[in-house]
Amino acid sequence: MGRVEDPFADTNGACDSVNLARFSRLHVTLGSAAHPPMLTRLFLAFLLLAPCRAQQPPAAVFAQLDQMTATLSRITGWPVRKKVPSEVLSKDGFKRYIESHTSDKSAQKNLRAEEIALKMFGLVPQDYNLARETMELLGEQAAAFYDYKKKRLFLLESTRGGDDQRMALVHELAHALADQQHPLGKYLEQGSPDSDEATAREAVMEGQATWLTWAYEMQRNGGKAELPPGLLDQVTRDTDPAPEFPLLSAAPLYIRQSLLFPYSAGTKFQDAVYHRSGKQAFDAVFGRSPRSTQQIMHPEEYFNAKTPSKPEPPALELVMGKESKQMRELIEGAIGEFDHDILLRQYVGAPESTTASAHWKGGWFRIYEHKKDSYPVLTYASEWDSEGAARIYFDLYLQVLQRKWKEMRMISRTPQEATGSGDSGRFILRVAGTTVSSIEGLR
Asked: What is the bridge-based pairing of β-strands 144-147 and 86-89?
């Protein structure tokens, strides 16, 4: 999240699970983004079916890879530049693989900053342990991944065989083929170092691989290599996690939904670009990447090249005076339409969340930490497409403040400003023109 480095940045893998009958956005692509998308784009796994022992020996499974890659090449028009080496990885081996990239002090520092940001926005409980929960979710969900640094495909030995194993491999080969045309590491590191754009790029990568997996299945069954509308709706439908995945089911709403986003919304986005540009769509989304999650959620904004704004959060000096010199910046980043939608859905509910968040123009947050006492302060600003939309969000965000804290005491309230205190300290919430801003956690 924000400008801190991704705790999984050296892993360079795209981790995915199986059964594409429904996508969990559990895309902990093991650090595919250099700048973690707002509020932890955990890059988990492609999830979707209960893990069990593989039913096909590795040799039989990997013998299919050349045919799979050739079919993906015909669908996309992309040449196969080299064979993708592959191997089976045990669950213990996968655990060691992840731990080797998350055990150093820098990774722990970054995870701590992400966790504080999640808690300040009220998106996870105060006792939530991000590092532990991430590891456990990875262990529950992972099935296969493509390491775009080593240019190697890994299949976890616990992945179910048959159709599910085949689809997991096709998805990873789609990543590998894309990587041969548009190096994924460079692609994910390009553009603005803000988290919302990084999330959009992840959605491009995962949405395209998911779309191609289904296109492959359609062609394999004698149909046209694309997704009929009914199938697209079915595979991207938002449903509750399967009971086979208790950790995902128990995860906070934001974690669950943010893990699904690159797959579900990304697949719809890829489909929209494909129907507009045909085969050129596969290169187009890399050549001109979407700038925000809003462009992923509303492809027409991508076609119109709508650029998000970057409103400046309030300055600490204006409210803390000389004491602001005792604060150090901990983390900052963009808050996109997706983030606002989930935040409002959690504390206000639908359909208000979707209706209000659709008027988003831009958002940015910055969190500081007191050098001596270690308490955090959140500064945050969002811009909306009209003054009316900003006033509506001002009222809605006040409800968020009231509901995310156990106790909230209002000190003053006018149409333009609300002040008071909550669990994390004093707050000041303001609306001016099309901008809503807040400072939270003041002492």
From this structure: unpaired
* Intervals of CATH 3.40.1000 along the chain: 317-442
Q: How confident is the model at residue 164 (pLDDT cuts 50, 70, 90)?
A: confident
Q: Residue 192: is it exposed, middle or buried by C-beta count within 10 angstroms (0-12/13-18/19+)?
A: middle
| SS3 call for 351 | coil
pTM of the model: 0.88
Q: Quick check: helix, strand or coil at residue 28?
A: coil
DSSP annotation string for 386-419? SHHHHHHHHHHHHHHHHHHSS--EEEEE-SSEEE
Name the token pair of 376.
């955090």
Give percent of the chain with pLDDT exceeding 70: 86
The pair of structure tokens assigned to 372 is 């001596």
Give every CB contact of residue 160 below 8 A, 6+ residues apart in sequence.
Answer: 18, 49, 50, 51, 52, 53, 54, 55
pLDDT digit string (tens) for 219-252?
999 999 999 999 999 989 887 777 878 999 999 9
With a cut of 60, say whether residue 35 has pLDDT above it. Answer: no
Encode pLDDT of 397-429 as tens digits. Answer: 999 999 999 999 999 999 999 999 999 999 999
Residues 6+ positions from 53 with CB-CB distance below 8 Å: 157, 158, 160
CA 14, CA 94: separation in Å to the nearest integer?
Answer: 13
The DSSP string of 302-339 is HHTTPPPB-PPPPPTHHHHGGGGGGEEEEEEEE--HHH
Q: Are strands 409-413 and 417-422 parallel, antiparallel or unpaired?
A: antiparallel
List residues bridging with 409 in a β-sheet. 421
The rounded distance, in Å, linking the Cα atoms of 435 and 432 is 5
Least confident of 251-260, 312-321, 333-342: 251-260
Task: Specify the CATH number for 317-442; select among 2.40.10, 3.30.980, 3.40.1000, 3.40.1310.
Answer: 3.40.1000
Alpha carbons 338 and 7: distance in angstroms, whole number: 22
Q: Can you give the pLDDT at residue 56?
A: 55
